[in-house]
Write a structure and sequence with these properties.
With 281 residues, this protein is mainly alpha-helical. The protein is built from 13 helices and four strands. It has helices at 14-19, 25-41, 46-59, 64-76, 80-94, 100-109, 113-120, 130-146, 150-157, 160-163, 171-184, 188-201, 209-216; strands at 219-223, 227-228, 234-235, 240-244. The two termini are 34 Å apart.
């Protein structure tokens, strides 16, 4: 696959670069450039990222960082069985537990939420850092929802991290998941409160919490790029018109928002049991 000339391979993380030192210099450069392309494309072009990951895998399948990158590329394309096999391989090579939550999420994607819950209760979870433990909590709550256990999902997300006023990288996603679970359970007032809190902590727009909040408030966004002004002319100023679907006669102040597993790490890397499925929630 073609790689732009501006990609040198030097852009990769220093730890990955160190792993690649076990390879001949020219091969290491080829692998690193493909890994850079995986990282560059995985969000906006997951299929392209997957293609580059397969090239890297063909070149250096015995490098843990390559297996991990291939796992995330497969995961981004909902190839959960393949992703799980790659994550298992990487974990066996390194002994690292960091991939445990995403491995559990692959089990969800394969339609095995019970397995994901088993992994959420495994000793490996205690070895995760705080971010990893929050990810595991999100996966476990998702598994509960897969099993239509909404109340259990809500309880699973209730934690010191959720109640904390400190904003961490995971805060917006945790609050969003909690709000979404509340809404699914019919607790709309509480859901609105937590969507609002998710908006407050979502500085980089990683969730659509603002849209969900607007929807609950009865606000819809109308594309006004082309608008007839009644004289046969059109307005192309690029503005977006905000319309309140409840159409109140007088403006009112918005309501204030209160602040308020088992160990399958040694499985064969070719284990591709299960069918691919769509990841829920």
């Amino acid at each position: 696959m073609p790689i732009p000339d501006d990609v040198t391979g030097e852009e990769i993380d220093k730890d990955v670069k160190q792993e690649l030192q076990s390879l001949p210099k020219g091969l290491a450069e080829d692998v690193s450039r493909n890994l850079v392309m995986v990282a560059r494309l995985i969000d906006e072009d997951p299929e392209g990222a997957y293609g580059y990951s397969r090239v890297a895998l063909r070149l250096a399948s015995r490098v843990a960082a390559v297996r991990e990158a291939a796992g995330f590329a497969a995961y981004a394309n909902q190839k959960y069985s393949e992703a799980l096999a790659e994550f298992r391989a990487a974990r066996r090579m390194t002994g690292n537990v960091d991939l445990w939550p995403v491995m559990a999420d692959c089990e969800r994607g394969l339609g095995r939420p019970e397995k994901a819950l088993d992994m959420a209760g495994a000793p490996e979870v205690q070895k995760l850092d705080k971010a990893g433990q929050v990810e595991m909590r999100l996966v476990a709550a998702g598994a509960r929802r897969d099993m239509d256990q909404l109340d259990a999902a809500i309880v699973t997300l209730q934690s010191p991290e959720l109640a904390s006023n400190s904003v961490q990288p995971w805060t917006a996603r945790l609050r969003y998941a909690y709000a979404d679970a509340l809404l699914a359970a019919g607790r709309e007032g509480e859901a609105r409160e937590w969507f609002a809190k998710a908006v407050e902590s979502d500085k980089d727009g990683s969730t659509d919490a603002s849209d969900r909040l607007a929807e609950l408030d009865g606000v819809e966004f109308v594309d006004a790029l082309v608008e007839d002004d009644g004289d046969g002319d059109t307005d192309r100023d690029g503005d977006v018109e905000v319309v309140n679907s409840e159409a109140p006669e007088a403006e009112s102040e918005p309501d204030p928002v209160e602040d308020s597993v088992d160990d399958d790490g040694l499985d064969d890397v070719d284990d591709t049991d299960g069918d691919e499925g769509d990841l829920k929630g």
